[in-house]
Amino acid sequence: MKATLPMPAGLSIRIALTSFLWQAGGTLTSGVFFNWFVQEAGAKGWMLGLLLALPDLCGLAGLYARPLLQSGWGRRHLWWFSTIVSRLFFVCMPGIALLHHDFPDPQTALWLIILAISLASVFQGIAFAAWSDWISLLAAPPLWGRTLAIRSMAMIATQLLLPFIAGAIRDFAQSQARMTGSNQLLIMVYAGIFLTGVLLQLVSLLPMLALPEVSLAQVRRSTGLWATLSESFQQPGYGWLIAHAWCLGAANGLTQAVLAQYQFQILKMSILPMQAMFSLMYLIQLPASWQGGQFSSRQREGFVLTVGTAITASSMLFFYFSSPQNWWMIGGAYVVWGAFGAVNVAGPHMALRLSPEGDRSASFAVFRLGAGMAAGLSGIAGALWLSWLLEASTPENAMAAFQMLFLASLAGRCLASLLACGTWCSQKHREN
C-alpha cells in the first residue's frame, strides 16, 4: 500500500537539526572519547575490544522493530521510546565509572558497563530501524537522496569543531591529574562530557516532535519477517548490496582499533595532526555527501558504491607505505576517505528503495545494522590477530604485523567494491 501522507513542511530542516544534535552527542559518547572513558575505568586488552565492538554487535536487534510495529506500535512512538530507554542505560555508565574504585572487584564495574552498553545498543538498534522506516514514508521517494545527503552533511558538520573543544577539555583535565597525582578529576571530566553528549541526544528528539505518526494501516501485518526479507532479496541488486555492505563493514572493522594503535605507537603521532587530518576528511565528505545524494536520486547508487569504495580502499596503501620518518603519508588516506561521504548516502538510499514500501524496517536493518555487526566481529578479530602477531614478532619487526592487517583490509575493501559492481550491473540490466 502506498503512503498517502503529504510531505511535512520543513522536514529536511528538522532532520538536519535532529541529525546535527544527535551526532554532536554521539561524538561525546562514542569513538575516541568512549575509548578514553572506559580505559580510565580500567578496560584494556580483550575487554576494551569488546566494549568498542558491542554497539555494532547488538545493533542487529533492530530486526525486532518490525514485530513491534506489527503489534501496534507506531514508528514515531517506537523511535521515541527506544531512544529514551537507550539513553537512560547510557546515563548509568558515568556513574559506574565514578564508583568503580568502590567495588570489591574492579572487574565488576566493567561488567556493569558492558551490560549497560549492550542494553543501550539493543534499544538503539530498534530505534534506528523504526526511525528509518518512518522517515522513508514521510519523505517522497524522489527526495530521499536530498534528505539523506542533508542528514549526512549535518552529522559531518559536528565533527569539524566539537572534537577539538572536547579534546582540549580532556587534555586540561589530564594535565591537572598528572599534577595532583589523582585520576578522579579526569574521570569526573569524562563523566561530564559523557552526560553532555547524552543530553544533546535527548534534545535531538525535539525537532521531530511536530511530525505526524504514519497510519498503522500502512504497516503490513500479514507478512512474516522472513517473507518480507525474501521479498527484498528478490529485488535485483539487493543481495549484492547486502554482500557489499557486510564485506565493507568487515574490512573496515578489521583495522578499527589497529589504525589508532599504529598511529600512536608506531608513527608516534600527536593528537593535533590527527585531528587536522580528520577535519580535512570531513571537509571533503561534505560535498561528497551532496553529490552522493544527487546520483542516488537518479538511481545511480551502484556507480557511486563501486567507484567510491574503490577510492576509499586505496587508503590502506598510504598506511602500508608510511613510517615514522614519513608519517605524513597517511594524510592521503584521510583524503580518499572523503569519498565515504558519497558511499554513506548511496548505500542507505538503495537499501530503502529496494525494501518493501511501508515495511522497510527489517530489510533496512539487515543492510545497515548487519553491516555494523560484521564490523564489530571483525574488529574483535583484528585486535586479537594483531596481538598474536605482535607477540610472535620482535619489537623491530612490529611494523610488519600492522602491514599484514593493512593488506588484509585492502583485500576486503577491494572485494566490497567488486560486490558493489554487482549492484551496478543489476541496475543496468533492469534499465535495459
UniProtKB/TrEMBL annotation:
Keywords: Membrane, Transmembrane, Transmembrane helix
Single Gene Ontology MF annotation: transmembrane transporter activity
Pfam family, one: MFS_1
Organism of origin: Planctopirus ephydatiae
InterPro entries with a match to the protein in the record: MFS, MFS_trans_sf, Sugar_transport-like
Protein name stated in the entry: Major Facilitator Superfamily protein
TM helices/strands, residue ranges: 20-38, 45-65, 77-98, 110-132, 152-173, 185-206, 302-321, 327-346, 366-388, 400-425
